[in-house]
Amino acid sequence: MSDADDWYVLVERTQSEERVLMPPIHVPEGRAAAIEIAREFCRTKGVRAREDGKNSGRQIYRTGETSWLVAVQTPYVSLDGKTIFHSDNHLRVEVARLEAVVEEDPMEIPKKKGLFGRG
Asked: What is the DSSP string of 10-64?
């Protein structure tokens, strides 16, 4: 791997109690380009669009040279159409260099044993 080929933007999305690592964004142009892509992602992406097509509210915190926490508030209308609620979730966005890849060992389906575990 060359120095420019192994930079990624990693995004962890949290809603309620669930954390999901989104697919890594490969940035072959290098670290500086990955930082710019991460900053733009924090400002514009990462949450489902509102039903009315407008932007959700967000606060963007830079927690390190290559990491951010984005708090997102998205309004939605109750099922009866009379009340507006807000859904709060957050994103953790990091720029990281791929350091190693360890392939998983192949797995085989075990052969079925006969009745009572006999051959």
From this structure: EEEEEETTEEEEPPPEEETT-HHHHHHHHHHHHHH-SSPPPTTSPPPEEEEEEEE
> Which amino acid does the sequence have at 34?
A
The closest of 37, 38, 46 to 72, measured between CA atoms, is 46
Please, are residues 73 and 47 in contact by the beta-carbon 8 Å criterion? no
Q: pLDDT tens digit string along 38-66?
A: 999 999 886 666 667 677 889 999 999 99
DSSP 113: P
Contacts 24+ apart (CB under 8 A), 30-34: 30/3, 30/4, 31/7, 31/66, 31/95, 31/97, 33/7, 34/7, 34/8, 34/9, 34/66, 34/95
Q: Tokens at residue 42, please?
A: 């924090």
Q: Which residues of the chain have pLDDT under 50?
A: 1
What is the torsion angle, in degrees rounded to the nearest 10, for the CA atoms of residue 104, residue 99, residue 47 and residue 79?
Answer: 30
